[in-house]
Amino acid sequence: MQQASPRMFLALGVAGLIMLAGTDLSVGRMVGMGMTAATIIMHNGPNTGSVFGHVFDFSTMPVGGRILLALVVCVVLCTLFTTIAGFFAAKFKMHPFISTMANMLVIFGLVTYSTKGVSFGGIEQSIPGKIIPKVGGIPTIILWAVAAVAIVWFIWNKTKFGKNLYAVGGNPEAASVSGISVFKVTLGAFIMAGILYGFGSWLECIRMIGSGSAAYGQGWEMDAIAACVVGGISFTGGIGKISGVVVGVLIFTALTYSLTILGIDTNLQFVFSGIIILIAVTLDCLKYVRKN
Q1: Which among 290, 16, 21, 291 has a CA at the least distance from the CA of 170?
Q2: What is the pLDDT of residues 42-93, one digit of tens each?
Q3: DSSP bridge partners of 173
Q4: Is the dihedral of CA 102, 107, 108, 114 positive or negative?
Q5: Which of 79, 106, 178, 238 sees the fewest Cβ atoms within 10 Å?
Q6: CB distance 225 to 17 below 8 Å
């Protein structure tokens, strides 16, 4: 469950884009960027690596201030890039597959070039105990995921934006005719995704006690997308529930742990994941065909 909590944020973020019949291929690179930024700010002492040749040292700041600053930087960076991808998708009708793939390449290139691809080591040892302490042996990191699920559920089901999200995802032309701004809804979904990615990468940095690098998070976009698809978020758009996303994340987390306990080779675990995704998407396609 500890591993599933940061990934829940990522899945919730990409779910909104899949609801609009889109996707996001840059999720993993967002995690790497956020992890790197958070590790630099919350690093235990002066940093072991540099950014564009400059070595940052935030160790003179109060721990609480560094934690908050790391969160803000993670959210701002991730939201900046998702907003750029969202703008191109909303303004120029560019498929999110393309705009987010461009984001993926740009982010990885910038972070790798600026940091020389090095890992920045560990964060202040006291930070995990302040943010995700264990109470009675139970990791409170789960509460962060529960809060994220509750907030996104409220947005999807109880707000005007959420209703518009379903409408635009189901039929953007009809939504536009009825007075809904497709541009604003699309851009809003990308911005919300960026905020969730920022929180997720910050939380993962604290869970792992640092170790931020450009390569961290590689392939995580596939896990997030797969969790949504298995949970019933349809690629045809306008169909899906937050409860489905939660179930999808838990299924893949349970699958990973089960296969590991059974001693299944890590490479073969990808095969099992691929088969599950293929079956889930096939069932979704069959429902769409029957509906039409």
Answers
A1: 21
A2: 998 888 788 998 999 898 999 999 999 999 999 999 999 999 999 999 999 9
A3: none
A4: positive
A5: 178
A6: no
Say what the pTM is.
Answer: 0.94
Query: Please, which residues have CB within 8 angstroms of residue 39's CB and are 6 or more apart in sequence?
Result: 120, 121, 122, 123, 205, 210, 211, 212
Q: Classify strands 138-139 and 134-135 as parallel, antiparallel or unpaired.
A: antiparallel
Q: Give the position of tokens 């396609």.
A: 285
Residue 171 structure tokens? 């039929």
What's the CA gap between 201 and 13, in Å, rounded?
Answer: 12
What is the CB-side half-sphere exposure of residue 109 using CA atoms within 13 A? 6
Q: Burial level of 150, CB count in 10 A (0-12/13-18/19+)?
A: exposed
188-225 burial, b if ≥16 CB within 10 A, otherwise e?
A: bbbbbbbbbbbbbbbbbbbbbbbbbbbbbbeebbbbbb
